[in-house]
Each structure stands twice: as structure tokens, then as C-alpha cells.
Amino acid sequence: MDELRTALDISMSGDEASAAVSAARAQIDTWGLVMPETDPLPFDFGLGRFPEIGEVEFWIANEVEAGYCGKFLFVQDGQTCPLHEHHEKHETFFMVKGTVSMQYGGAERVMTEGDVLPVAPGELHSFTGMGPALLLEVSKTCLVDDNYFADPDIPIGGNYRG
Description:
The chain is α+β, with helices and mostly antiparallel strands and 162 residues long.
């Protein structure tokens, strides 16, 4: 399965998606950073509340056969990537710019630029921007079906009830 195609299919589209990507790119430009030449993926996690629950992802690589993935994750101030876990994927987050409140291991951890956090499979985690923030995720391959969200209303990955 082409995981990027699957991710593109569940990402937002239309005017709200364009506005989300433009806002992310504008903030990233103010930091003087350059993102990879990929189609950004604006996600609202199927809830339709992007300003509150969402993120914009810039995939660098998702090499299924080689077993690794790298992507940038951007959130605005107060925007949350919802609480979830993976059964297969081990990931490590590196805080590139900004600050997030990371929920991990049942506790809150504030991550600032330069902080690193490895997250093992089965560990619930989420993060919320404390101002605009950019994280680098380096992980095992990203498989859409290996996302299990605590919110049963999120119709993605292991939560999909189609």
C-alpha cells in the first residue's frame, strides 16, 4: 500500500487546507527554515476542528521496505495532535522550533528547541503548541493503520470503523 497516497486521501482539502498550509509555510519562513519539496498534509483527524485539533505534516521519507520514516510536524499555538499510540512504530521527536506541551507516559513534559523524546510502541502521546511549533519525527515506517487514537470519534487508522 502506498502510505503517502493513503495519508493524502485522509488529509484535508479545499480552502481550509490551503489556508492551513499557507499559515504553516508563512511561520516556517519567518524562522528562516526550508521545508522539503513535498505536498504538505494538513490533518484535522477527521473531526473538522483543525484550529483546535490538527497539524500540518511535511514528509521527508517514508521508506516502507527499508523500515524508516522522517517528517516535520507543525502545530499552531493551542493546536493539538491528539492522544494516540502505535503498536509497531517507534518514534523519536526532536524539537526544531517553538515549544510544545507533550503528554507522554501519563505526564506532561514541556519540550523546547533542541529537546529529544523517544516514544516506544504502545506509549500514549500527544502534543500541543505553546505558540507555533515545529518538530522533527524520525521513526519506523509510518503506516496509517498503526495509529490508535484515544478519541473513538477519530476515524483514522486503528480507529477506522468503515
